[in-house]
Amino acid sequence: MSVTSGTSGALFLMNMALLSQGDEIIIPDPYFVAYPHMSTFAGGVAVRCPIYPDFRMTAERIKPLITERTKAVLLNSPGNPTGVVLTQDECRDVLELSRSKGVVLISDEI
Length: 110
Hints:
4 helices, single chain
């Protein structure tokens, strides 16, 4: 168990724990303002997953972005700043993709 000062603190610590120099984390675009900076501070690279025009971060959009440097996918639902809530099937598809590629799936459900 761990205790943090809030969601941003937890996400910052997660980036610090998972990412080494040049490692990648896939984030939605548009994104919460702090997401790319947290990974940069940890030495990582935030790979932006364009989710226009419907603001849905789906497995189909994520899959082509995964490389050997990908350590994590950050799924944000309800989305900030979009407010879009992914369906159960969409979440399950992202989980299955993450598992199959051996990357950590982080869920920010703020």
